[in-house]
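Page 37, continued from 36.
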C-alpha cells in the first residue's frame, strides 16, 4: 500500500540528520489495543466534525486543519483513497485557499501569525508525496521561501514573518519542523539556515540549569513545553550529541510520571513524545506509558477529547507514535 512508502523525515540529508547506529535504535512495543481503538475513534470523530469549507475549528483554522490532516495520516490514510480520502483532500484544499496570492503566506480571518504558516507548511510537506494534486508542490515551495526570508537575525523565528523581529522557541520549533519535512520531501534547505537555527536554539538554553526558556538566555524555570521543544528542535536540526542536547534531555528525565500526567498542555506532550522517541527507549517508555494511559482514559464515548479538534488531533498524534507511519515519527 502507498502509505508504506512513507520515508523518514528526521534523517533528512538536506538537514544533515545523523542517524543512530542499529544497536541504538528504539524497539517500540506493539501499539496497545486500547490506544489503537482510541486513534480509530478519534479519526472517525474528525471525519464527523469537519467544517463545510474543509477546515476545522472556529479560530486558528489553519493550525487546526493542519493538525487534523496529519492525524488522518497516522494510520496510513491518504488523500482521495479510502473512507477518509475526501476529508483529507478537503483539508488540503482549505489550506491552499488560505495562501495569499502575492506571496504564498498562509493566513485566515482569525489569525495571520507565522506559527500557523509553519504548521500548514509542515502538513503539506507531509502529504505532498501521497497526493496526486499538482497544486501542492508550488504552494509548498513558496511557503518554504517565506520561512527562509523570515528567519530572524538570531537564527530563529517570531510571530510575524519579519527577520528583524527576534525569535522565541514556540515559533522556532514550528518552523524547524516545517523545514525538516520540506527537506525530506525534496526541497533544498540551505545549510546556512540550519546552522543559524541550531545556534539560536542552543541560546534558548539556560547555561546554568540546562533548561530551555522561551527566548534567548533560557531565563526562568522552564516549562514542559520548552523542555520538549528545545531537544526536539536540536534533533531535527541534526544535533544528536552536543552538550546542550544532553543537558536538555536530562531535564526531561526529571519529570516524574506523576508530573507528566498532571500536565494538561497536549502540545507540550506532542513535543516531548517526539523528543523522547528520538532519544531512545528508556525516555520514550517513561513518557509514553504515562501520557497514553491518561489520554485513553479521557477520551469521550464519541471519540473526541475535551478541547475539540485541537486536543483530539494532538491526542491522536501522541498516541500514534508507535505506528511510525507519519514521517515525523521516523528516526
Amino acid at each position: 500500500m502507498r502509505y508504506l512508502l512513507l520515508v523518514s523525515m528526521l534523517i533528512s540529508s538536506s538537514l544533515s540528520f545523523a542517524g543512530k547506529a542499529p544497536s541504538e535504535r528504539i524497539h517500540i512495543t506493539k501499539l496497545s489495543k486500547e490506544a489503537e481503538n482510541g486513534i480509530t475513534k478519534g479519526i472517525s470523530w474528525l471525519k464527523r466534525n469537519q467544517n463545510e469549507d474543509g477546515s476545522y475549528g472556529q479560530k486558528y483554522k489553519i493550525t487546526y486543519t493542519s493538525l487534523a490532516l496529519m492525524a488522518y495520516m497516522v494510520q496510513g490514510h491518504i488523500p482521495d483513497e479510502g473512507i477518509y480520502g475526501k476529508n483529507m483532500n478537503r483539508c488540503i484544499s482549505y489550506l491552499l485557499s488560505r495562501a495569499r496570492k502575492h506571496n504564498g503566506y498562509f493566513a485566515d480571518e482569525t489569525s495571520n501569525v507565522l506559527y500557523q504558516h509553519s504548521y500548514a507548511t509542515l502538513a503539506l510537506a507531509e502529504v505532498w508525496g501521497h497526493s496526486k494534486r499538482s497544486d501542492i508542490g508550488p504552494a509548498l515551495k513558496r511557503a518554504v521561501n517565506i520561512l527562509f526570508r523570515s528567519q530572524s537575525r538570531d537564527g530563529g523565528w517570531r510571530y510575524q514573518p519579519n527577520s528583524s523581529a527576534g525569535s522565541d522557541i514556540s515559533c522556532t520549533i514550528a518552523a524547524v519542523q516545517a523545514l525538516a519535512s520540506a527537506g525530506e520531501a525534496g526541497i533544498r534547505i540551505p545549510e546556512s539556515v540550519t546552522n543559524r537555527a541550531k545556534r539560536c536554539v542552543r541560546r534558548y538554553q539556560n547555561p546554568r540549569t540546562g533548561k530551555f526558556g522561551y527566548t534567548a538566555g533560557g531565563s526562568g524555570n522552564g516549562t514542559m513545553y520548552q523542555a520538549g521543544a528545545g531537544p526536539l528542535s536540536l534533533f531535527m536540526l541534526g544535533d544528536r550529541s552536543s552538550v546542550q542536547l544532553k543537558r536538555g534531555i536530562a531535564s526531561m528525565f526529571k519529570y516524574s510520571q506523576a508530573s507528566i500526567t498532571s500536565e494538561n498542555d497536549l502540545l507540550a506532550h506532542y513535543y516531548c513524545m517526539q523528543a523522547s522517541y528520538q532519544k531512545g527507549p528508556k525516555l520514550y517508555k517513561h513518557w509514553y506509558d504515562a501520557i497514553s494511559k491518561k489520554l485513553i482514559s479521557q477520551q469521550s464515548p464519541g471519540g473526541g477529547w475535551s478541547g475539540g479538534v485541537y486536543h483530539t488531533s494532538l491526542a491522536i498524534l501522541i498516541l500514534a507514535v508507535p505506528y511510525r507511519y507519519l514521517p515525523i515519527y521516523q528516526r
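The chain has a mean pLDDT of 89. Flag for discussion at group meeting. The chain has one domain: 2-18+36-329.
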